[in-house]
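so im writing up the methods section and need the Branched-chain amino acid aminotransferase record in one place, dumping it here so i stop losing it
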Amino acid sequence: MSKKDKKIEIQLSDAKIAVGKDNYDGYTLTIGKKLIGEIVELDNQFAIVKNGNVESFYKDLEKAVEILIENYNLAK
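--- predicted struct ---
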């Protein structure tokens, strides 16, 4: 039996992201209806934000998105 391929929709949307007590323009990454992560640009770097705290910094948006997707797949 062959396994049927599933189509998965990944969406990057503009959003206001809370970091500490401040709000910044940023992005939310969702797969289907599930929120995977939030990304904010701080000091010319892209930061992954979890629970209102900065987790890590990356030089470009693509790398930050890639890390969020990897972490999501590893946690599954």
